[in-house]
Amino acid sequence: MADISVTAMSPSTPNVLISGSGIAGSVFAFWLLRAYPRANITIVERSPSLRLTGASVDIRSSAVDIIQYMGLEAEIRRNCTGEKGLSFVRSDGSPIATLGATGRTDIQTITSEFEIFRGALASIFLNPIKEHVQLIFNESVADFHQNEKRHTVDVTFATSKQTKTYDLLVAADGFTSRIRSKILHSSDPREQIRDKGVHVAYFTVNKDLLHSQFAKWHNDTRGRAVFLRPDPHPSGRTRANLMIISTPQDTERKVRLDCALSEGNESYMRLMEEYFQDCGWLSQEVLAGMRESEDVYCSPQVAVRSPRLHVGRVVLLGDAGYATPGIGTSLAITGGYVLAGELLRHPDDFGAALREYEGLMQPFVRNNDGIGEQAMQYLNPQTVRGIAVRDAYLRVMGLVMWSGVGQLIMMVVAWLGWKEKKLAMPAYPWPAVKG
User: What residue intervals traverse the membrane (predicted)?
Assistant: First the structure.
């Protein structure tokens, strides 16, 4: 078992612990090393190895600028899924409407210019820093106490049982963050979680069900959706999502889904088989593929709204503080950049840095609140009539997008400044990259 080393506190060599090796923590570590090349950074990860599976994610808003600053845009594009757009289809597979990618980074449709699997993106962010940080698997934060006199955090680890001292503890440990619960004096991590009424089973079907670079989406009544996305691997696979979208009034179904999630994949898969047994299109092939898949992952889509993003020398980053369906990955990238930038701007005052970070991120998160929830409820009606109304809107949108009028509209929208919301970030004084 690797020992968790410690260096003395110094403005030029901050000693930082990051809980979680995902996108938020890796981006933060990248920029902290740019600000302080001698920083002592330890990343602990609860899993036994890097989690390289996961659903497709995208990059939008200020996060697009940040990956360009990092010099990683080209590599991210090389690893994108190749998805060209999204077709909504009927039970017989015939198209209702097709929404293509825009070819722009400032105005994007459901298919982003940066459609990439979560695991691939996490690896790209981790690769530049992994030789410069201490990465420890099978480890997590069991407890911590802040030393107000020394302005440090004493952290006790779950596996090694060691207690070490850090200048800063960064909670990048996801929407169920126990660190968040402790700094907010909350007995349950779910107290800051907002249920969006969306439950999803993600998995890979070892068969090409699409024969196309366009994703396909089929809806049936009672908020059921089958969403298939292309896989760039040459072996012929399909990335599948089985989605259940519940209304706020449908508490009984949400309870059943939550119980199945808590019991594990087998229980959840049985429930999916029950719910989708009479669903149209490729539902039966997808259910069969789910049973043969080796990477089934089931999760609710939730939002986290923490009333605070830091207490003392403990700070929440990414989903731990502000998970948001539809833009959560972009907020995680933006948060990592801003947190490191504020530590650079305030090298002798971590308290000021954390206050500035919170002051920038909280309003930005609120401005993006509800986007994913509204979209999911609109795109997934519960009734035959609701689906028919949605389809009528989609047909108009599809016709506009595929015409020259659609391109003209996007040009006008961009010229008017009606683009994706970006965070007004300070011009951080990043040191020049050597070499």
Answer: 16-33, 392-418
